[in-house]
Write the structure tokens for this entry.
Amino acid sequence: MTTITLPAYAKLNLTLDILSKRNDGYHDLSMVMQSISLHDDVTVTLTEGNGIVCRCGMLPGDDSNLAVKAAGAFFTETGIPPRGLLIDIEKRIPIQAGMAGGSADAAAVLHALRALLAPELTTQKLEAIGAQIGSDVPYCVRGGTAFAEGRGEKLTTLKAAPRFRVVVCKPDFPLSTPALFKRSDTIEIVDRPDTEGMLIAIEEGDALGVSARVFNVFEAVLDAKERDVFTIKERLLSLGAAAAAMTGSGPTVFGLFIDESKAKSAFDTLKTGYAQTYLAEFV
Ligand code: C5P
């Protein structure tokens, strides 16, 4: 086998809490993460040449691309002699959206290289390699429903959360992750998610308990020019979402729906105002 195509799933934060700022500049977090069916397709092909060629639509295919970084780290960390690679990424996950699209592509490259070159590698080893690429990459290697701590790399797999339909809607402005973390350093976080309650609700398969506890502390640091986040949240709730919140460092907002037809009509409605609106489900 010399080529493989894998899906790279987007993630949502069902909860996101910032516990403390660390001496290394990162923050200790507590997050419940969930993969959704919105995905990129990542194809990795072994080539005769040297070096890594990455084709990723409008995005740069150089070392600034997390997928390319992941391939480099794979060879360095496993000691496997570097091979020529062609990485093709068909992007669907919006970029800089809080859905870990770049990290998901990196994780898919790690899975692909394991399948092609080193099937004996453990998932734990892949996650450790992923942690060098970015804080969300270990979770993207694992996927599903998981509890993430530390800077995001300490993972506990949870029972699969109740299967919600999801409407994902990205407003048309960027939000930088480091900038939002900096803003969070300047405020006292008063309202926090009930993470313990969320973990119990997931364990018990309690869909209403899960939706009641969806919460992201980053929403407290948004300013007036980012109020579209709250507008979208309100619209999702008025269109029948059981819960709505921003994911990660945003600006994407998601709504969780129990009823498939309500999800579809909320998608149709929001799509008219926001081009980057997607209908998905938990995976
Ligand atoms: O790990 P990653 O490169 O994805 O992180 C991007 C930036 O986000 C970091 O440089 C840091 O500013 C911030 N960050 C943080 N605490 C985390 C994760 C990310 O402060 N747990």
Remarks:
- The two ends are 27 Å apart (CA to CA).
- Residues 26 and 197 are 26 Å apart (CA to CA).
- The longest strand covers residues 27-47.
- The pocket of cytidine-5'-monophosphate is lined by residues 26-27, 29, 134-136, 151-152, 177-178, 181 (CB under 6 Å).
